[in-house]
Amino acid sequence: MLEKMRNRRLSYAQYIELALYDEQYGYYMRRKEKIGREGDFITTSNVGHIVGHVFADVFIRFIETYDVPPLICEIGGGTGRFAYAVLEQWKRQSPQTFSQGQYIIVETSPYHREKQAEILAPFMDHVRIISSFTELSSPFSGIVCSNELFDAFPVHVIEKRNGQIYECFVVVEDDQLVEQRHVLENEEIVHYLEERDIQLVDGQRFEIPLAMKKFIFQLDQALEQAIIFTVDYGYTDEEWKHPERKQGSLRGYYRHQFIDNPLRYPGEMDITTHIQWDALRFYGEQAGWTFTHLWRQDEFLLQAGILNHLIAHHDPNPFSEQHRHNRAIRSLVMSDIGRAFQVMVQQKNMNIPIFT
User: Fold this and answer.
1) CA 26, CA 8: separation in Å to the nearest integer?
2) Care to name a GO molecular-function term for this sequence (predicted)?
3) How are the residues of the chain apportioned to helix, strand and coil, as percentages rounded to the nearest 5?
4) Are β-strands 257-259 and 251-254 bridged in parallel, bridged antiparallel, or unpaired?
5) Segments in the chain forming alpha helices (H)
6) How far apart are CA 228 and CA 348, in angstroms?
7) Which burial class, exposed, middle or buried, applies to 108 when counting CB atoms under 10 A from its CB (0-12, 13-18, 19+)?
8) Under a CB-based contact definition with an 8 Å cutoff, are residues 51 and 301 in contact?
9) pLDDT (tens digit per residue) in 31-52
10) How far is 189 from 191, CA to CA, in rounded Å?
11) Which of 1, 78, 86 is nearest to 39 (CA)?
């Protein structure tokens, strides 16, 4: 990968695009486990099937009660475990709507498309796996969801020093990746700061999610009516002002270890950033989406009825399936993992109550 970068000055967005998505070198394009115990990180959708079952309860209620078309589109399907859990619950709980429905996964990684096809084999009559949402039958009406999608989008990095805003770049020096700063010239970044009214303090680093902004408007072109669920980790504009976030949030995860330097292990580790929830809301509203609510994930799961999935049993074996199932539920609503994630709901040309 270093050879591909020699004699080039890349913005962080270009570097992340290369490190994560390049067909030859990109981390997400590699044929290796990335999620779970054998990978580099764990997602909440990998905590058993509980999260998928609870979201399925919500989706089914929309379909049965509010005549939402029985079409679910998951963007960035990962291992396919979330999709499996949703389909499993959907088939069991609402066989009639399931028989009429379809679950579409939009996945850029060829490796993950193969893994999804394997795990979803029992449901393939109701599943379609595509590489881009531009392949959707347009216009799409139904439910759109994503789990930890935007945190893996490329971002630009800026920094304010002595009253001047700089953009940070990546170059190769002595066979090492190093950072350089240059006075900000990118007009798209300048426009982003102005329209979002972002004010940096001296010494502050900040990520600029131009790729997320672009994606929102591209996705909007494929949608006619939709309820859009975004599950991720991030901060509001007010939370970004906290001194502990002064250095931004760009980081890596390598073999379940937090790596504070995103230039280490290029192409071999996940690179991630906390998303800007107010930016997602702002550009969604510009696209014509109505903001419904932003919940902490544990609060969302409780309102969605996760406790109804607890299993009453008298098995004294702490390693029994029932005990493991109930422990997974408790971890999602009582541990840090439930509080670290949020759920945002937006709607396009719909006005459906999420909870009644």
Assistant:
1) 18
2) protein-arginine omega-N symmetric methyltransferase activity
3) 40, 25, 35
4) antiparallel
5) 2-5, 12-21, 50-66, 81-93, 95-100, 110-119, 187-195, 210-222, 237-240, 277-286, 297-303, 321-334, 336-340
6) 8
7) middle
8) yes
9) 665 454 554 445 554 455 899 9
10) 5
11) 78
pTM of the predicted structure, to 2 decimals = 0.91
pLDDT per position as a tens digit, 92-146: 999 999 999 999 999 988 888 999 999 999 999 999 999 988 887 778 999 999 9
Closest alpha carbon to 39 in 88, 81, 73: 81
Q: Do residues 4 and 18 make contact, with C-beta atoms less than 8 angstroms apart?
A: yes
Strand partners, 169: 11, 180
Structural tokens at position 310 = 């607890």
Considering the domain boundaries, does residue 255 fall inside one?
no
User: Residue 163 corresponds to which tokens in the numbers above?
Assistant: 């009253």
CA angle, corner 150, sides to 114 and 262, nearest 5?
Answer: 90
Residue 91 in domain: yes
Residues β-bridged to residue 293: 345
Domain count, the chain: 1
The answer to whether position 307 is within a domain reads yes
Full residue range of the structural domain in which residue 76 is found? 5-156+208-236+272-347
254 φ/ψ angles, rounded to the nearest 5 degrees: -135, 115
Which CATH number does the domain housing residue 98 bear? Answer: 3.40.50.12710
Evaluate whether residue 104 is within a structural domain.
yes
